[in-house]
């Protein structure tokens, strides 16, 4: 039985709460394709079913694009789930760092003893090139500066072509931890695409305050291929080292691509040549330390 802390997962109930991407008709498809099958409740009991057969040591809930008008409400909901089910262990809240009320939102989120950081997907271009992204905005940077005093870190989900902007932020705020989501999003699996992704990720790896989650590495069309993901997993670990990498399921979103078991058995197979101590760090200890579980 594989022991693990799942460093990235979600719960939601679109019948009871508002999630624009789940509730609004005509919302663009997910990067994996049609996501209509996700427009249903996914609750701790469902997650327990999907993780059956694993020794789940802990889990990290990541904001699920809940109603952006009420980010604190999402953490109240998570608090109720924790009371009812014991899951998740800790959580990452939603905060719009560029908005005038960012400081007040962050202060309220920090009052939940299980909240460890925040995620907001900064403004990004749909392809390499173009105007600078949201991490260059003065208002965004002002909000970002509020994280460290409140004991919060930043979860970064952005296309790899904006990672040079994130590296600048990491260097300018060396005491604020950044955790990259979804392996830096290597969406283009061509040789040229993977080389560009690796080069961008290497700049982030040079910042000691940056860690990374190997999660959400399915492909457009809903595929989770061991042969394709092996290179991604191993190159991330090569760049960041065993001590700064964690595995996450991105469930239930990655249920569009594969079962929970397929994903974690795949991770286990890819790193089977690592030492027992290294595997323990990748599957449990690093997440335990980074998220203070």
From TrEMBL:
Pfam families (UniProt xref): Amidohydro_2
Coiled coil residues, start to end: none
Name assigned to this protein: Thioesterase
Superkingdom of source: Bacteria
One example GO MF annotation: hydrolase activity
Organism: Ramlibacter henchirensis
Segments forming domain Amidohydrolase-related: 5-292
Similarity annotation: Belongs to the metallo-dependent hydrolases superfamily.
């Amino acid at each position: 039985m594989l022991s693990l802390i799942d460093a990235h997962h979600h719960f939601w109930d679109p019948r009871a709460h508002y999630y624009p991407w789940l509730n609004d008709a005509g919302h663009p498809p997910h990067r994996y394709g049609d996501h209509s099958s996700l427009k249903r409740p996914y609750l701790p009991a469902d997650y327990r079913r999907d993780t059956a057969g694993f020794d789940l040591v802990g889990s990290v809930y990541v904001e699920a694009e809940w109603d952006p008008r009420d980010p604190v409400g999402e953490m109240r909901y998570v608090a109720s789930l924790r009371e009812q089910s014991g899951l998740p262990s800790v959580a990452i809240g939603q905060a719009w760092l560029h908005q005038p009320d960012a400081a007040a939102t962050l202060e309220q989120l920090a009052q939940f003893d299980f909240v460890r950081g925040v995620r907001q997907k900064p403004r990004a271009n749909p392809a390499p090139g173009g105007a600078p992204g949201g991490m260059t905005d003065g208002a965004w940077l002002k909000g970002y500066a509020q994280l460290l005093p409140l004991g919060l870190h930043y979860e970064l989900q952005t296309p790899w072509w904006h990672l040079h902007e994130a590296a600048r932020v990491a260097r300018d705020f060396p005491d604020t931890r950044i955790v990259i989501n979804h392996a830096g999003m290597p969406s283009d699996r061509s040789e040229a695409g993977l080389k560009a992704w690796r080069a961008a990720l290497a700049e982030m790896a040079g910042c000691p305050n940056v860690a990374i989650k190997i999660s959400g590495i399915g492909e457009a069309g809903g595929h989770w291929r061991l042969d394709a993901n092996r290179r991604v997993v191993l190159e991330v670990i090569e760049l960041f080292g065993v001590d700064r990498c964690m595995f996450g399921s991105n469930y239930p979103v990655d249920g569009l691509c594969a079962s929970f078991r397929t994903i974690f058995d795949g991770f286990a197979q890819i790193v089977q040549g690592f030492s027992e101590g290294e595997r323990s760090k990748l599957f449990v200890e690093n997440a335990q330390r980074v998220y203070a579980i």
